[in-house]
Amino acid sequence: MVDALNLRAAIAADADLLLSWRNDAETRHQSKTTDEVPRDDHLAWLAGALADPERILRVAVDNDRPVGSVRADRVEGAWVLSWVVAPNARGQGFGGRIVGLLVDELDGEIRAEVKPGNPASLKIAEGLGMTQIGTADGMTIWALTK
Question: Which domain holds residue 128?
Answer without folding.
Answer: 5-145
